[in-house]
What we know:
- By secondary structure, the protein is α+β, with helices and mostly antiparallel strands.
- Helix content is 38%, strand content 25%.
- It folds into two domains: 15-55 and 102-133, Pleckstrin-homology domain (PH domain)/Phosphotyrosine-binding domain (PTB) (PH-domain like, Roll), CATH 2.30.29; 58-98.
Amino acid sequence: MDAGEADETGEVTVTRMGLRDGGWIGYAEGAIFVQRDDEKVKISHSNVTQLSLRTLEWDLAVMSVVLLAVGTFVAITRNVYIGIVFGAVGVWSLARTYDDRHELIIHVDGRAKPVTVHPVDPGECHERLAEVAGLELQ
């Protein structure tokens, strides 16, 4: 039985892929499903306008590295405590940016904000969802 076909009982099989932060994203005939700890979302294929995969928010990564460098410079030349604070904020920002890497963005017609998920295997998930939804890869 292919993904999304109804079996003898009339139930639809959903092909699932895990998310890094818990939960899963799946697809079946006609819909994409996202289930996280606190929410369940069903998106009809006809409502998906665009699928994109963002590998890293480069502007935040560069800003974080610059903040870390400024903190190091200030700690060496001026004030150790202020430099440590700048450096700590830079490290925190860099770690947060790293955690948000490989973000799959699903733009949905009629929703103000797109649905964003972090799949375990982002490349495969992006390709499969684009194939199932009938969209071009971006």
